[in-house]
Amino acid sequence: MRLGIRSKLLLIIVGILLVVLFTHTYLQLSLQSVAFEGELQKRTALLKENLMQRSLSQAEALASLAAEDIASFNFFSLTNKIQQAIEATSELEHVIILDSQNKIYIDTGRPELQQSIYSEPKSLAMHEQVFNTQSYTITYTRDVLADNDNKYADMDALMEYKFPIKHGETTWGFILLGYSLAQLNEQVRVSHDENAENQKHLALQTSYIALAVLLVAWLLISQITKRLISPILNLSNFSKDLAAGDFSRIHRITSTSRDELGKLTQNFGDMALKLEESYKKQAEYSQTLETTVSQRTQALHLKNAELVHALTSLEESQQQLIHSEKMAALGQLIAGIAHEINTPLGAIQATVGNTSKYLSLFSNALPDFLASSTAENQTFFCKLLASAQYGAVMSTREERKVKRQLVKILEGHGINQTDELAEMLVEMELSEKVEGLLSELSSAKSFDTVVLAHHLTGIGRNSTTIQTAIGRASKVVFALKNFTHLERSDQTILSNINQGIRTVLVLYQGLLRQGCEVIEHFGDLPEINCYPDELNQVWTNLIHNSLHAMQNKGVLTIQTEQQAKNIIVTISDTGLGIPLDVQPKIYDTFFTTKPAGEGSGLGLGICKRIIDKHHGSIEFTSSPGNTSFTVILPIRN
User: Fold this and answer.
1) What torsion, rounded to 10 degrees, do the Cα atoms 343, 345, 349, 352 define?
2) Among the CATH numbers 2.40.10.10, 3.30.565.10, 3.10.50.40, 3.30.200.20, which is that of 485-634?
3) Angle formed at CA 292 by CA 288 and CA 294, multiple of 5 degrees
4) How is the chain split into domains, by residue range?
5) pTM beyond cutoff 0.70
6) What does the pLDDT look like over 499-552, one tens digit per residue?
7) Alpha carbon of residue 542 to chain centroid
């Protein structure tokens, strides 16, 4: 809730009046209370002094009577006189007669203590002591007037006097007189009650006066502030009209007052006139400006359309350039790819001929074997077929070593035709099982049986060879298909970086086998949203540049890993390196160090644009024998 100037002024003035009135009332009541307390103390002291004078006179008289009766040992008469004195004096509470040994002879308050030793009660606090050395008077005041804090709740307060009883020059004992302070306390209480009533009456009068003063002040201040704020409210209404663009009432902004508000009103009227004139000029200028802006906007739309068309053409040209560079890189791989496909095709063709040969030999030898063989030979034939295998691949050196060992074993058991037998057994992968076949190999018909089994198992070996060749050719064809497959350039797809790099390595197998060692350190990478077709072009260009720098002979190291939210791909080679004067230019378009016809100067420039498109970065370090390109790709959802 927002308060206006008038409300704020009223609240401030009323608050000040409240503080002043409260302070005045508080001070007045405090001063009156202090004055009453001072008067009460004086009155109490006077009452106490009167009581003490009367008590001392009575105490001296009773002490004299006690001395006479004690001298005559007339304690009965002394008791009656003391009792009459107590009944005649309302303030006197009790009288105690003690001898010099503090033995009690008379105790009007507690008769049962007579003839016992007197002891001062510990519960009575000695607040005041008076010693009169001339008359040997000792005055004890116990529990004198209660203070103001407990409102005189202790109505049994006593004032006690102790006088010596002398018999001649000898002190026989003492007389103790206890006077009640109840009447004195009652007088003090009545005085306090009267003062409290006066204080309450004064507080009510002060409150009524304060309320009347506040009401009158509120009415006066309300009228004064209304007259003061009225010009400001008028100016506020005029300012709302000006803010809404309404200048119809600006000529009414006048004031005959010569004070600050009058000057403010006059200045506001002058400002309104100037604002009206400025508003008219601004309206004319705005109309002219709208026309100009409309014309400029139309021209800007035309320019924008031209820029959009140019940008679209540029993007299409860039995509065509990237595709052309990709096809150029693919063209460099055609010879190697053709060799990679022709090699398994030649193996398949040769294997098919061998299969026909083995099948023909087996068909011709089978009737004679069945006609002349015994049951043992047929069992041995089935055992050979069951034990033969086709999957192992050995190098020529390993195969010769195994064959020599097998020949020695066969010769050691006196078996003939060891060279031919050893070669067939090695091809059927039975060299490790020869110990279990030695008994059958020693028979006369064993050689023909092994030859027949070798012909039949050759069909299986040829089938394995064909499958291997087909798998190799399929791998190359699949890699070529992945490499040339065009993705939509305006959308990213999930792809694995390791799979893309392996695809490029398959296509470069022909060049890698010329003397290049590939060291792979592929980390466990997540799939990321990317343009895999364009990234494959990056790996192709970097691997091709490494092979060219090493002349296809050296060590190519490829490492992939995940660091935080990035994928790091590092491709290193042991080539000649990039000269220092060339390093700043390697990403420039059409810059190349290759001979004419071997490089276009677009590869690394296109690689950098592709990496930038993926919001990544590419870095390199180069020295003779060690050149590394590092590609950093962010992992984005």
Assistant:
1) 110
2) 3.30.565.10
3) 115
4) 5-204, 348-475, 485-634
5) no
6) 889 888 887 777 777 789 999 999 999 999 998 888 888 898 898 888 888 988
7) 43
